[in-house]
Amino acid sequence: MAMSIALAIHGGAGVLPPAELTTDLKQQYEAGLRDALRAGFEVLLHDGSAVSAVERAVQALEDHPLFNAGRGAVFNHMGQHELDASIMDGRTLRAGAVCAVSRIKNPVCLARLVMERSEHVLLCGEGAEQFAAEQGMEWTDPSYFFTQRRYDQFCRARQQQTMKLDDGKVIPMGTVGAVACDRNGNVAAATSTGGITNKRYGRVGDSPLIGAGTYANNATCAVSCTGHGEFFIRYVVAYDVHCLMAYRGLSLQEAARLVVMDKLLPAGGEGGLIAADNQGRLSLIFNGTGMYRAWRTSEGTEEVAIY
Fold first, then answer.
1. 265: buried, middle or exposed (CB in 10 Å: 19+, 13-18, 0-12)?
2. What is the b/e burial string over 63-72, where b = at least 16 CB atoms within 10 angstroms of the residue's CB?
3. How far apart are CA 76 and CA 16, in angstroms?
4. Do the beta carbons of residue 172 and residue 50 sit within 8 Å?
5. 235 and 259 in contact (C-beta within 8 Å)?
6. How far apart are CA 276 and CA 179, in angstroms?
7. Is 53 helix (H, G, I), strand (E, B) or coil?
8. For residues 307 and 250, what is the distance between their CA atoms, to the nearest angstrom?
9. In the prediction, which pLDDT does 16 show?
10. Which residues of the chain have pLDDT under 50?
11. What residue segments make up the domains of the chain, in order of their start?
């Protein structure tokens, strides 16, 4: 019997305050989420794999200039882009990831190549780009990633010598991600990010780290995280959700809530996650103001939300 299919995506937990999100901007975000959701769900409808579905959805989000991944990525302290991404197949437990790449249009696609065509999991910087070239992937000029909005954010942050804005709020630490369950009950997760505006010293967050920002295991679920990366690394968030299901028998909702609300929140770790279990059930949870997100299952219509 065919399993329920499901897909959830996120465009980051660092959302604009309601007062700053104009009607026009809100519509643009919602349209971007809807397009990415449809692109990924189309794969599942045609009996494609969960891995292909999450790759396709994240690729669409990387191509959209409003999200902090791919084309809309933030600038680091040197005024450059350093992109991170990862993907994991819950059926095989194979995974691929890249970090600090600056000439790859769709880092999530490179992460999948690392998973499928190398014996490694995580490749960094120039080495990852060299591998991409050997695999026939075209390099992109770094200027492709430029957006005026991100550049203005960067200028304000550098002027204040901080990773915060003048009102004291941390600049939105956007990430994009997707989780899916396909007709065979296989789950997969993928995550991609440009990191934090004005980041220094080659800082890498949780997005390309398997177990922290991304994890998938057919025995339990697939998870993609977004938020303050350092906390997600320390608390091994994505893997922790799996562990609570595997070892304590919690449901997907219970496990996700325990990690995001009972562990991260008291520790000061703002953010959220999306998850899909092997029955096609979804969880989308966050402990801050909001999280750009969208989801669809074989039972329901597509849903898009921000706050």
1. middle
2. bbbbbbbbbb
3. 20
4. no
5. yes
6. 6
7. helix
8. 26
9. 83
10. 165-168
11. 6-305
Q: How far is residue 147's CA from residue 33's CA, in Å, rounded to a whole number? A: 19
Amino acid at 244: L
Residues 82-133 pLDDT 10s: 999 999 999 999 999 999 999 999 999 999 999 999 999 999 999 999 999 9
Beta bridge partners of 197: none
Choosing from 22, 162, 175, 197, the catalytic residue is 175
CATH 3.60.20.30 fits 6-305, yes or no: yes
- Nearest-angstrom CA–CA distance, 279 and 276: 8
Active site residue 175: yes
Q: Could you give the residue ranges of the DSSP H alpha helices within 107-258?
A: 107-117, 125-134, 148-159, 229-234, 237-248, 252-257
Q: Do 185 and 3 contact (CB within 8 A), yes or no?
A: yes
Measured CA distances, 75 to 70, 97, 231 (Å): 11, 20, 21
The DSSP bridge partners found for residue 84 are 193
What does DSSP say about strands 122-124 and 187-193: parallel, antiparallel, or unpaired?
A: unpaired
At 126, give phi and psi (nearest 5°). -60, -35
Give the closest residue to 42 by CA, choosing from 57, 28, 62: 57
Q: If you average pLDDT over every residue of the chain, what do you get?
A: 94
Give the single-character DSSP code of 258: I
pLDDT for res 170:
52
* Calpha distance 192→145 (Å, rounded): 14
> Which is nearest to 36 in space by CA: 70, 63, 13?
63
> β-strand 94-101 against 122-124: which pairing, if any?
parallel
- Name 179's bridge partners: 8, 189
Angle formed at CA 69 by CA 64 and CA 75, multiple of 5 degrees:
115
